[in-house]
């Protein structure tokens, strides 16, 4: 295939080879009894339909890939010579993809043009590359326009992409959790199986010994890898990384699950070795981060960039920038739905770093994105007054937050902490449940008091104001706030 470099997600998905069966191909065009012939380089036929099918929007071919696959492009071709010796048509069609046949998305958001008008040869193949590699189960080809005097239009196609399972070394089989399995059918001792597994030169492609993740992976191993007549075999897994005596047995259940059991004296003749995969993954880039109105979560929008392996899950590594990766969190999200996910339980005013990667064992160029839920509070004006009765009164404006959408929220309560300017003076704190006023009594004359205001947002008090005042008789300007002492 000319438009993608070798070794990337560009292998034929099975129309030309017949891997996609005729039962998985359907057509809505009337008087079409050979839709299954629409396969690239098929010399016996093609997908043919009448011109009026285009006007009635019935020139549609739907291909079921049989399972989720990554789709990267499509090739189109006219009919073989035995159907038409010359073929000078221009055909415009759309190629769409869907996971459920309910919601469809158009490839590259534009129509594709099959053009043999200038060459007059039916062997011409036009290739179309997707701007992104997409995950899909169904592909729909919808012919929307043509430039031809012929009453019949005939076309052949191939789809290109790759499986979602990462490729494994020779003799190893890829699993559905980014694992590779090595089945050994002729071993007489567990130590022999363990030695064979550990001594294989696969470090460039595989990681550490691993473990079966869940029942689905057990069934995958049972049904797709193990011979039907094998019900018990040795397991060489991650336990062998730390224990010399790491012998385990897998026992196949009637429902296909594999249950681990301790080794006994029984003699077995087969084993399975399980390792993590280390594939080359496409880079995942964060395109935007938007804060929620309450200020404790963000929505992260991401996209694939470049050519490489893609997965059905991504990992997000999150840490607070000021403390480094000591408090690192690893979060896992599905890539099968919209390319957006949420990170919750964040603190406003804190610088976070987040790094995305395709999956635990998929190598990729990693990019770190930094964000901060900032500017929560507008500046708070505070005033302090010494009253004749020997008390001190604080007043302040309402604290507000502004979300990205412009919504305004006011602080539901406030905290006031104060401290006198004396050695070993303790700090006292009070909670103001309503209003923007606080009164302190009694006072010490000729004493400096410092007050700090806390505003309550997102289940936490945040520093939002400070004022200092010295009790006395003369008006003063301190810390840019106008303070009045009554006499």
TrEMBL record:
Show where the F5/8 type C domain sits: 9-162
Where is the protein situated, by its record's location annotation? Endomembrane system; Secreted
> Per the record, what is one GO cellular component?
endomembrane system
Looking up InterPro entries in the UniProt record yields:
CTDL_fold, FA58C, FN3_sf, Galactose-bd-like_sf, Neuropilin_MCO_CoagFactor
Which portions of this protein are annotated as coiled-coil regions? none
| Pfam families from the UniProt entry | F5_F8_type_C
**A GO molecular-function annotation:** signaling receptor activity
Q: Which residues form the signal peptide?
A: none
Q: How does it sit in the membrane?
A: Peripheral membrane protein
Domain of life, per UniProt, equals Eukaryota
Provide this UniProt record's keywords sorted from A to Z: Cell adhesion, Disulfide bond, Membrane, Secreted
Give the UniProt record's GO annotations in the biological process aspect: cell adhesion
Against PANTHER family, the record matches this protein to: F5/8 TYPE C DOMAIN-CONTAINING PROTEIN, F5_8 TYPE C DOMAIN-CONTAINING PROTEIN
Its recorded name reads Neuropilin-2
Q: Which organism is it from?
A: Trichonephila inaurata madagascariensis
